[in-house]
Amino acid sequence: MTRIKARLLRIPTATRAPKAEHISNDVNKPNINNSYKICDSDYWDKVPQLQVSNDSVTVSTSRYTSSNISMKSDFPSLPSLPSMQLSDQKDQVTVQITLQQLEQTTVPSLFNKHKPFSLNSSQATTISQGIAEYIVTDLKPLTTAEGEGFRNLVKLLKPRYNIVSRNHLLEKYIVPMYHNTVDQVKRDLEKGMRHAFTTDGWTSINAESYITTTCHYIDITTFQLCSKALDTKCVHISHTSENLAQEMKVCINKWNLQDPVGVTDNAANIVNACNIAELPHVGCFGHTLNLAVNRCLAVNEVSALIGKCKKLVSVFKQSCLKASALHEAQISLDLKQLQVIQDVDTIWNSALAMIKRLLETMPAIWTALYKDKKYSHLLPSDIDRKNMEDLKDLLSPVEEATIRVSAEKSATASLILPMMESVVQSPESVQSENPNADVIDVKDENLNLVKKPKLDASDDDFFDVLLIKEEKSSESNQSVMKAEIERYKTETVSMKQDPIEWWKIKREIYLNLSTCACKYLHIPATSVPSERVFSTAGNILNKKRGQLTADNVDMLLFLYHNYKKVMLLQ
Q1: Gap between the Cα atoms of 237 and 269, Å rounded
Q2: In whole angstroms, what is the distance from residue 375 CA to residue 361 CA?
Q3: In Å, how far from its chain's centre is CA 65?
Q4: Mapped to the 3 state alphabet, what secondary structure does 486-520 carry?
Q5: What is the pTM for the complete model shown?
Q6: Which of 6, 175, 290, 368 has the fewest CB atoms within 10 Å distance of its CB?
Q7: Neighbours of 111 (CB within 10 A)
């Protein structure tokens, strides 16, 4: 049967409902019987009747059952409520609804719908909090809140909201966010049995010196590796060993780091600072690799080859016509559209990236320059290309090792020895010297262990140290430890698996050794985490935001690196 699209009409005055305010005042009075008629001019004979009595609305129909009636499409004047209850009784539909929700719209309520939110209302507070989180998580300047385009967008989305000033946003929302996050980070740090920290210094565009510190630990409740950015402190003193040692002690006491281990670069002042502060020190393995590669690149033959490559790249970097010619040559040769990469003296792996890109685009480079008398002499010879290939093969394992040990979400200290093996020796040379040696296949991008690892005398010495620490314990504990060590020596270890995940799975089997793993596997192999923080600082301290105070720089960097993690845990 055709559905009836009806509209709600008042019936004559004799049965008209009282005004809305009377309805709300008379809800508890008996014998309230107000009628509304739902009708359509084409279906006068099918008109259903709507009866309002006390707290219910009854829709009665005479010619069709409730299955033919859609409460939303056929009776659009009825409120749509989550609490609506329908009962199908032959030709009757009952809707439970309060009379208060049938009130007419008053003039004051109509104006209130367009009235701006008060500053401290829940709606305004929620929106302001959202804007503060947007600024913090996306590293936006505080002036964003005062930008014309941003204000127009907010006004379009929420006309009743008056956006607050940047000072109000900072004081009322961002500063409390910072203090709450600091408290939460301190509670999280308490879950670590032992802490390691990385620290490094950098200089802002305002020539201000900063020291950044990060912390790393294993959460003993979840057996997961965690990292936190702690302080980015502006220092106005000389970076002597004594001053750096004092700064490290202040940071350790502020965050209550337990049995801390420092991971820094190999500069003499910071190494001496750790000695003065009586802190165990681990040199940055990435910095060590960087020094080794720089010495390699300083060899005359290698340096000359790098110089030729840089001159060749400069042709396309400094000439729009040559860059366009290279692009056209790549299209004609059906090659991938790639730009050449220039070497940066302070970043060693940029030399490797430059050589890799030149080898990839060499056919297009020859097509673009071989007829050009001015630049054709820069094209590499066959011997140069062969040397470029050899240099790429030499440096690629080092780059892979640098990437692997610079990870922050997995254990990296345990990768130092395997990475050194992959960089220094080839699989063939290792096997020729000792067929039973542990081999890392450097040709495999995953750097998987080819054979089951075996422990030599030095490894046994390490386990002897663990047993010495258990001398004061009972004989039963020592026997348990010895049994765990012997069982552990038979395990097969793969470079694919994160050691922390491996110990998490095996901790029920190795109760003592897994506890020992928690004390060491959290230590990062490099100081890269702190370098990542001050790399982020470049997005905050730029020419347009050069007036930021040191305290605000610290607060914004801290929130950017920690607030999202804290929110995910809540």
Answers
A1: 14
A2: 16
A3: 57
A4: HHHHCCCCCCCCCHHHHHHHHCCCCHHHHHHHHHH
A5: 0.71
A6: 175
A7: 9
- 512-to-259, 500, 548 alpha-carbon distances in Å: 19, 15, 50
d(CA 313, CA 320): 13
pLDDT, position 475: 56
Is the CB of residue 417 less than 8 Å from the CB of residue 403?
Answer: no
CA–CA separation, 257 and 217 (whole Å): 10
C-alpha–C-alpha distance, residues 140 and 157, integer Å:
20
Q: Which helix (H) or strand (E) holds 237?
A: none
Does residue 72 contact residue 80 with C-beta atoms inside 8 Å?
A: yes
Question: Tokens 């294993």 — which residue?
Answer: 218
Low-confidence spans in the chain with pLDDT less than 50: 1-50, 52-57, 59-102, 426-472
Rg of the chain taking only CA atoms, in angstroms: 36
If you search the block for the tokens 């590796």, which residue do you land on? 225
In the chain, DSSP finds a helix count (H) and a strand count (E) of: 21, 11
Whether the CB-CB separation of 453 and 493 falls below 8 Å is answered with: yes
Question: Within 10 A of 48 (CB to CB), how many other CB atoms are there?
Answer: 24
Structure tokens at 303: 């340096």
How far is the C-alpha of 427 from the C-alpha of 346, rounded, in Å? Answer: 31
Q: Using an 8 Å Cβ cutoff, are 198 and 263 in contact?
A: yes
d(CA 40, CA 77): 13
Tell me which amino acid residue 482 is.
K
210 in Cβ contact with 202 (< 8 Å) = yes
Q: Which two tokens stand for residue 180?
A: 């709450």
The SS3 of residue 441 is coil
HSE (side-chain half, CA atoms, 13 Å) at 187 = 9
How far is 397 from 420, CA to CA, in rounded Å? Answer: 10
Give the whole-angstrom CA distance, residue 108 versus residue 268: 75
Query: Which residues make beta-bridge pairs with 176?
Result: none
Residue identified by tokens 């890392």 is 440
Using DSSP's 3-state secondary structure scheme, residue 89 falls into strand
Biggest CA pair distance of the chain: 110
Structure-token pair, residue 448: 């998987």
Helix axes 550-569, 175-189, angle to 10 degrees: 60
